[in-house]
Amino acid sequence: MPGVTSDMMTSKGHNSAVLARVAERRDALARSWPTWTPRTLAQHIEHSSSRWPQRTCIVSDGKNWTYSKVADLSRRAADAFFAAGVRTGDRVGLMMRNTAEFFALEFGLTRIGAITVPINYLLAPEEIRFIVDNSSLSTLVFDTEIVGRNMIKVLADAGIIPAYGEKGAIELVARSREPQGSAGWIWLDDYLAAGRSTAAPEAGSPDLPCAIMYTAGSTGTPKGVILTSDALQREAYGTALTRGFTPDWCSLTALPPFHLFGFAQCVLPPTFIGGQVVLQERFDPVEQLKLIKSGAITDLVGVAAMFYRLLDLIDNEPYPLGSLRSAYVGGDLVPESGWQRIRHGLGIDEITSGFGSTEVQGTSFMVPPGHSNEILANTIGWPSLSGCAGLAEFGGAEHEWRLVDVATGEPTAPGEVGELQFRYPTISPGYWRMEGAADPSRKDGWFRSGDLVRVREDGAAVFLGRNNETFRSGGELVSAREIEIFLSKVPTVAAAYVVGVPDPLWGQVGCAWIVPAAGQEPDLAALIEHCRANLARYKVPKHAYLISEAAVPTSPSGKLRKRGLVDLALDRLASES
Length: 577
Prior knowledge:
The protein is of the alpha/beta class. It contains 16 helices and 28 strands. The chain has a nine-stranded mixed sheet with strand order 2-1-13-12-14-15-16-17-18, with helices on both faces.
């Protein structure tokens, strides 16, 4: 199968042909959106439906949902929720499979000014209960079974369904019918039917809270990030513009609906051009290859671990990859060899990576299509652009941003490391039930991200880790990310993850977890010597262990859990003492 090689790049680190192709598509999209009109999500899907009523918007469960059909369900959902007493500012939980219905309900709730709370269906019962209690849900819509998990039992274990036949403290609406019938809830079909005689008023606003997404809570209590309709659309339009979406755009993804990545990068962007998204309930690389082979898929979106599993199948049995032309890869560090494997294995020359957070309501930096493996591996790219949806005084950038010295609070000099800070227009207004002193991330109108970054001479930003992911060794601040990038360049290494662990002499020292490259057995002692020869002494890991990619601790969305690696390191060190 023909691949795309890195020698197609110029000495400046980009592919001129790809840049020109994407620029032409961007111009076409920009001409179709010459000005920005703030809308609620409900108003936006109505607008898209008026332009492309019979085009497919979402494919899920093997069914095609046209723009008209999605808009119709969003209207019926708004009527039903309003008829049931849901009003502006009320919170409605959605714990549902990755389907068109989830997003149609989310769109519809903004019509009446209600706030959607997507809930991670993989959480433990007590974690689900925390979100339900913290957000004070008035209503919870749930699927009775998700990815093989009995959600009725989960909700019962959480105390949300006290007992069969008893009504819970909140309105419960179930989407899937069970043989035993309802037990304290109403079926969604019946719920929607009850609202047929009601016409919900337009009570939403583009700048009102439209959703609360709870962060993973890797440290401390999960925080509910408040999102707004206008900011989400500005972000999504920026993605469509940066990548040059076209009317035939068809993204395939298995990203779950309870994280912003899937909504902001897959579901919402095509709605600005009449494109579509194909949703998988769960990640299945074999099924993805079949869908790609069918010829309908033009774009693939996921985290790096998903792409690796897909490429394992392609390496074993090459597939004709139909119309696939682009990929968006999120998640954690991918070395140059990994980017080249994606580029060659999928036979594509348009690869995008993004860097952001729920607090910025999407991406803040992107590597657009057409840039080299070196830039993809070593940087987070350039500030995200949004054209007419961005800041005119900053060339259409999505955000105003700066780098600030963590110790002094002053802006850093060019090339120096600083904390990344943002302000309007797409920054979250705050965390749910955290105001003033309870929210230290906001000061003087700026959101303090906790991300440490420096800017290269080419303007690309380099992410060096989180404030809380750095560690001090002998009084010196160590960036784990810097060491990970360095180790990942070794040919025998597929990926490297570095964490700080306690040390009686230095306070903390580095522990490197090494994922071997395919068919390789890295010499750990040689890797430490390699670090000692090229890095400052305090940056050299004292410990190093091998780990398979499958054994690396990740969250349900596939993101690296560094706390899990610390625990593994402590266990290993304890067994050696």
